[in-house]
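chain below, 586 aa
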Amino acid sequence: MDEVEAKFDVWDYVVLIIMLMISSSIGVYYRFTGGRQKTTQEYLLADRSMSITPVAFSLMASFMSAITLLGVSSENYTYGTQFVVINIAYILSTPIAAYLYLPVFFKLETTSAYEYLERRFGMASRLSASAIYSIQMILYMGIVLYAPALALEALTGIKKEIAILVIGFVCTFYSTLGGMKAVVITDVFQSFLMFLAIFSIIICAAIQTGGLDEIWKIADKGGRIEFFNFSPDPTERHTWFSLIIGGSVTYLSLYAVNQTQVQRYMTVKDLKTAQKTLWLNWPILTVLSLSTSFSGLAIYSKYYDCDPKTAGRITSTDQLMPFYVVESMGHIPGLTGLFVAGIFSASLSSISASVNSLAAVTLEDYIKPLYSSINKKSLPNSKIIIYTKILAFLYGVLCVAVAFLAQFLGGLLQAALTLFGLGGGPLLGLFTLGMFCTRSNQKGALSGLYIGLIISGWIAFGRPRPMPPTLPVSVEGCNSTTHILPGYVSSLTASRDDSQYFYLYRLSYLWVCVIGFLLTFIIGYVVSLLTGSNTEKLNPDLFVPPLANKLRRSLRRYSVSSQTSTSEINKKSDGNVIKNDFTTNL
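prediction:
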């Protein structure tokens, strides 16, 4: 690490500090302007005054920060380009989220997405779902915080444990101080830093290798180019089936029913604006995904004959991108610091957004109902903001603790997607059961949710499980002073036999979300039928638009029929009327 550390100089630290100060100053600015966060409408929903473009960038930055920068580039370097097929899932899923799920939440106009579940099924469903979401997001924040700490260790030699503490407490301060306006605007600034970091890598590699086509040729020669794996085998890590089906369900679990994203939709004035925002998010997300994937090939063009992990120069493939930045661009004053600032600020954005949403859920789903039940009155507005900021602070501290455990979750990208699949699949199944099925009830909903969560969790974290096969790397181009890790040759030539592992543990991590979704939906529907469908009057606003329109037509027909029946009864109370009516019918 000594060689790397020497290239992170004082100007890099200056740039890093300046970029972090800009991000923090945006939060400070919005803290002391406008209504100064006197209401939850302003603090949590930005007064519903945000425009399309900032929210679109914010939607992208929420879950694609440092994990995308480090994880996707490492993915393409280590496993090849098959992962880019997931972008097809994004375009297929966007209209489903925009025109089916999103209108339901806008009908409710609530801060917590889980209030829908209480109106549709009951309080038990709401509390169960919000608890699962909270645990899911706390674990996710740990990974987001761990990612920049990992990068800092690779670049400067500072222990990642120290970096976690420093970055974590900065995040906690910023998250507690800034409201949703600050979060969204900061997301835009940090998104540009992300794109700047990615394109600087691609441009640098193109200059060094002789063009983009040379990068592609080197990657192709190294076996990194793969797009057409149509294998139906669910144990293969990435195929068209796992990426499109698994990617679609994961995307919907994030962009259709996740509290963090739903809360962002609610920052714009109306449904049509929110739908336009989601559509604009799609090309931004796709461009970042594709460019980050290509950056992995760009990094491979430098290390194709001297893999730094095998050579013992880094300890994890998730350190490849920052290591490349230092080696290839470290001679330019401040450029390495700018790259690290992009990782840091992007993580700040994601954590602040998650903390903001977790505070909203805890306030709306737990604090307010509990206060009302004890005091027989609503929580005063003066206390709401105080409680919300205290909750944001506590969640920030909690994410620091979880970050210390993130190093045991494996690769950043796979760990993040596994976590989203574990909680996101069952939650998507629960919301889908409520919005798409009129016969579902709370018994079925809770049965499906718990069984889906238990089984998908068992599959996701069951042990022992095989390590996914990686593409071969080379150290032939390393100089004689480079230390090569032992066992390198055998790791490439040894044949794989995973048949001794339990079958479900061999499934691709992308199927975890799908299994959780299907189990929750199917079991929930079957149990609902067996226990008796909900006999209460159904509110059309709680269902997706096609089904809601059908229910409204049925209610109108029922209303007309009831009025006609009442009229007939009134007529039959007068004999002359009955006779005249009978004669007329004849």
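The first helix runs from residue 2 to 6. The CA atoms of residues 371 and 379 lie 6 Å apart.
thats it, cya
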